[in-house]
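Lecture 7 notes: from sequence to structure.

We start with a single chain of 273 residues. Read the sequence below before looking at the structure.
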Amino acid sequence: MITSQTLLKVEGISKTFIRKDASVAALKSTTFQLRKGELLGVIGESGSGKSTLLKLLTGIEVPTAGRVTLLGRDITQLQGSNAQYIYQNIQMVFQHPGASFNPRQKMRTSIIENMKRLRPTMTKTACNQKIDSLLKRVKILPELVDRYPHQLSGGQCQRIAIARALSVKPQILLCDEVTSALDVLVQAQVIELLQELNKELGIAIVFVSHDLSLTCKFCKQVMVMYQGQCIERGRVKTVIEEPKEAYTKNLLGLSSDLATALARRERYENNKI
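Now the structure, written as tokens:
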């Protein structure tokens, strides 16, 4: 059952990198909240701060300023073994799924290693049972997970990567350009799968993309990033119909099928009721 519980609270986080004699502000004073079951799209061109934001949420990078709270716990400075708390509750699915698996291991082995690291009380039998259950959910034949990453298609790898992320029962799924390396048909299948998971499990999803139209088809809320700043945030329909910033208006002008995207978004919402 999806509730309004706040899972993630981001308060004024910034990140400045020191490179040679210059400093680069990759992210500037970003604030937002993510609630249980929320679908949040993060839009922006390369260099807008999207990747830096994900690194800060997962503890890969530490903010220069600001605070991140996950389920009421401050995770801003968590490092090393303490960072397991983050990965137990936040999992990421990457743009190139095959590259996120160990090429020398069969995919089942990689998933079990991840599960045992983050849920150490699980037995190998329990891990395998969980994997088989998740493979059905993501519509992958069980025998495929006993292959190496290079033996599968991009779409198959992405579905298995989603199953791996779900295997530790996270509250939040971060999707980093998860469809950009896939063809149009497989993109649609992955989006449909994510919609089903959100509806059935109540899992919150942060969907990072440069594709505004695709994001509008999928997400209820959207956050527009530009030069390291969140310049606009709100319901998809509001941002599309009443954009406040010139950059957002330019994005809307470049996307020719936003009316269709929004109509699909509304039909999906109506079907959920």
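The chain has a mean pLDDT of 87. Keep this in mind for problem set 3.
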